[in-house]
Amino acid sequence: MKFTKMHGCGNDYVYIDGAAWQILQSNKPDVVQFLSDRHFGVGGDGVIFINPSDVADFEMEMYNADGTRAEMCGNGIRCVGKYVYDKGLTDKRQLSIVSAGQIKYLELEVDSENRVSWVRVNMGSPILVPDQIPVKISGRQAVNVPICVEGQEYHMTCVSMGNPHAVVFVDGTDDMNLEQIGPLFEHHELFPKRTNTEFVQIVDRQHVKMRVWERGTGETLACGTGCCATAVACALNGLTDDQITVNVLGGEIEVTWDRERNLVYMGGPAATVFEGEINIEEKR
């Protein structure tokens, strides 16, 4: 099976042309775990199948590294845009991509070699109603609400960008042990579908630093939907302006929350790392 390894700010996935390589749905979780393994497979934060669609230009079928299906990936969808344009599957620079029933709209910027280098995505409206995120918190929004993790109280703001996020503000991100604290948030009883957790340090009104623990994967170098959730959470708490740059371990992502239209826009790079072929029948 042929594959392409791509990343957005270091958030790397294995990309498969779902029209060319068809895998039984029941086998995909096992195949995804194999391909994602950084020792025995290709290695990545998960696998994304790019499929034909009747409702959009293409479908993004995304899986976490543990084989579980995910609803949305901001870095992943930017790379999908680059994949289909660079490979000549489309000549459009404005695309619609559907993932788990959600349609997102992309604007592609190309370089001097007519290859996509930057993608701006209309990520839609943030979901703030607790039972729609979902998070087991009463009230109309979960803004700056307490959560107890191993006897320590934190405050979180919960946002869904098609997938659940808990944004926690901290004094500094550099010395945090995410391997220890990340799983405790992910599997906390308040999150019936688990959660992605962003730990955010405010730099100034236009800049923040963020580290992320992604549901089903662990710490990643970037999370596009997490950057969007971070921007919304920062604004809701009055900590930043509505347009910010989020500094993640793998680079920078620009996010704007247009409050008048209640839409979140995310811009960032997309890069191809390498392409190859792998025999999935020989997986161990």
Quickly list its features:
42% strand, alpha+beta, 4 helices, 18 strands, 284 residues, 18-stranded mixed sheet
Whole-angstrom Rg: 18 Å
Instruction: Work out the strand percent.
Output: 35-45%
H and E order: EEHEEEHEEEEEEHEEEHEEEE
The major sheet is characterized as: 18 strands, mixed
* SSE-based structural type: alpha+beta
User: Whole-number average pLDDT?
Assistant: 96
Low-confidence stretches: none
Query: What's the overall geometry?
Result: globular
DSSP helix count? 4
Report the count of strand segments: 18
Helix content class:
10-25%
Q: What's the end-to-end separation, in Å? A: 16 Å
Secondary structure blueprint with pairings:
Elements: E1 2-8, E2 11-17, H1 28-36, E3 46-51, E4 58-64, E5 69-70, H2 74-86, E6 94-99, E7 102-110, E8 116-122, E9 145-149, E10 152-160, E11 164-169, H3 178-186, E12 196-204, E13 207-214, E14 218-220, H4 224-236, E15 243-248, E16 251-258, E17 263-269, E18 271-277
Parallel strand pairs: 2-3, 4-6, 11-12, 13-15
Antiparallel strand pairs: 1-2, 1-18, 3-4, 4-5, 6-7, 7-8, 8-17, 9-10, 10-11, 12-13, 13-14, 15-16, 16-17
Please tell me about this protein's structure.
By secondary structure, the chain is of the alpha+beta class. A hairpin with a 2-residue loop joins strand 9 and strand 10. The longest helix is centred in the N-terminal third of the chain and has 13 residues. The chain is globular. The model has no long low-confidence stretch (mean pLDDT 96).
Q: Summarize this, please?
A:
This protein is 15% helix and 42% strand.
